[in-house]
Amino acid sequence: MNKPEVDIIVPVYNYGRFLDGCLQSVADQTFGNFSVIVIDNASTDDTEEIATAWCARDQRIRYVRNDSNIGSSKSCIKAYRMGAAPYAMFLAADDQLLPTFLEKTAHGLDANPDCSFAYSLCSRLVDERPVFGQNLFLPLLPTGPHNILNYLAFTNWIYPSFSLVRRAAQGKSGVFDIYETAKPEMLLQGLGDHFMWVNLSKTGNAYVVNERLGRYRIHGDSETSKFRKGRRDIVELTFLNDYIFRYETDFGLVPRLLSKANSMGRLATNFGVVRMALEMAHSDKFREVVEPVKREFLEALRQVLSDFRYDVAESDPMGSRKMDSIEHIRLLDEYLAAGDPAILKRFD
Prior knowledge:
CATH architecture of the largest domain: Alpha-Beta Complex
Number of strands: 12
Shape: elongated
Structural class: alpha/beta
Radius of gyration: 21 Å
CATH superfamily of the largest domain: Spore Coat Polysaccharide Biosynthesis Protein SpsA, Chain A
CATH topology of the largest domain: Spore Coat Polysaccharide Biosynthesis Protein SpsA, Chain A
Largest sheet: 10 strands, mixed
CATH class of the largest domain: Alpha Beta
Low-confidence stretches: 182-188
C-alpha cells in the first residue's frame, strides 16, 4: 500500500447516528490515497461498533478510543500527531464530503506549493436535505491561490471539514502550541479553526476551490449551535481581532488595522467599519499609526466590502446583506476619490 498523501482525522463523541454517512462520503472519494483516524472521545452510543465495522472492510480506516473525553481540540491534536501524510484534514463526524473534494483540494496544493491550506465551499444539511449556501459572509474568490488574511480579519467562513492543511505549514505556524501552553481561560473555545486559518495565512496563500464540495450538518447539538448561544462568538471574535492587532511582528499593518476597525466598528458598536476606519485615519490617537498605509488600508477595506457576500440562495432576502451599509460604502468611495475629511461629518 502506498504511503497516504492525506490524513483524515474524524473526531467523534456520541455521533454514531451520523458517522456511517460521514465515512461513506470519505470512501466515495475519487482520490483514494488517504488514511482515516476515527478518534473517539469515549462515546457511550454505538460509535465504536460503527467505526470498527468500517475498519473491517476498509484497511485505510483506523479506530482509536480515548479512555475519557479529553475535549475535541486535544483529541484532534492527538490524532494529528499519529499521522505523517503531507496533507491533513479534520472532518467532523456529522459532516459529509462530495466525491471530488480530496481530488480538487489535494491537486490544488500539489500545484501551488506556496499555499499552506486549501478549502472548498459547502452547503448546509438540514433534516438530511442539502440547503444552498453557508448562511454567512464569505468572499467571492475564483478557484486558485489567494491571500485571504484581510478577509479573515473580519470573519471566518472556512470549515475544517472542508479544508486540507499542508502539514509542513502547520508546523511552521505553531498553530497547536497555544492549546498546550496557554491557560485554559485564554483559549479560543469556539474559534480555534479561525485562529488556525489566521496563523496559516501568515505562512502562505490559501488555495480556494470555488465549488460546494461539502455538506455541513445543522442540528441543535452541533458545536456551532452551542457556540453561538449567548453571543460567545462575538466575544471571541473580538479576542481574535485583538490578537491580530497586537502581534505586529507576525501580521502586516493593513490586516492589523482592518482587525481593529472590525472589532470597534462592527462588533463593539454600531458605527460600522467604514466610519471607524476613517475615524482611525483622522483621530489624534491613531492618525500617526495609520498615515504610512492610509491609502492601502482604505483600499483594502473597500476590496473586502466588495468581495464579501452573504451566502444564501438568490431568492433569499438575506442575500442583500452587506458588511456595512450601502451609504457608508458610498461615502468611502467619495473619500477615496477626494480625500476630504469633511466626509466624516456626513455619517449618521
